[in-house]
User: What shape does this take?
Amino acid sequence: MSNKSIGLYVCWHNKCPSFDNELLYAVNDGIIEGDNISSKGLHYGELKVTYWIWKNAKEDIVGLFHYRRFLNLLNNEAMCNKVSKDFASRYGFTRGRIIELMGKYDVILPYKNPRIVKEKHPSVYDYYAMEHFKDDLDITLEILQEKYPQMYDTAIEMLKNSKQGYVANLIIAKKEIFDRYASWLFDILFEVEKRIHDKVILRDKYQQRVYGFISERLMAVFFEYLAKNEDINILEAPMLFLEEDKWKFFKYYLKKINRKILTLIGFGRKEWNLYVK
Assistant: This one.
């Protein structure tokens, strides 16, 4: 494991910080060379870099971050407002730490988030139906049943009988696991696109990002199925929010404080232990 190569790709489309780190590579999701789906525009969002990593990256261990969202591999800090010289060592983006973790695990995902579903909604599926277009998820389930019938029961379990799921499409994985996931994911999404594209292009820009929204829900399906049926180890890590704009960071910080206050007085959810062992 010690000689494995590592590439952590940071997706961006606005200004991306300079990380000055040998493992973190900034990739503009609108300008990508090699085998890519950049032409699909905003519909796929950060998944354009997921696709690019699948088709082009050569490292043994690969990962996808956003320019504002990372996986914290060392502690439970949730917010950062500056890419300082100790950014990599502070949050575990070092060769030693990643080799240590990947010696124990096959994939690292965001901590499964109970806030992906609001309290009054019974499942991931119901909350998706409220926030987006229910028919898109129904079509996704139909396609999954057609192409991967052995995974359909897991899909129902994770979407219709669960309140928890992964967010933001963040991942670090051994390349063979990443490739399996990406191959499965895009096989489904490209078929979904064929069936709903004419409707999608008539929506507002937010709702046109449909394939990214769907993939967040599918990630839980794929890895739950692998965890149950194959000998793979999954680590869930806290998500780190990076915002160097002081005003935007301050607004985010106030939201976090407000949530903690609501929790203390009994109107919020208890925080989970996010420390990465």
Q: What stands out?
A: Residues 85 and 220 are 34 Å apart (CA to CA). The mean pLDDT is 89. DSSP finds nine helices and nine strands in the chain.
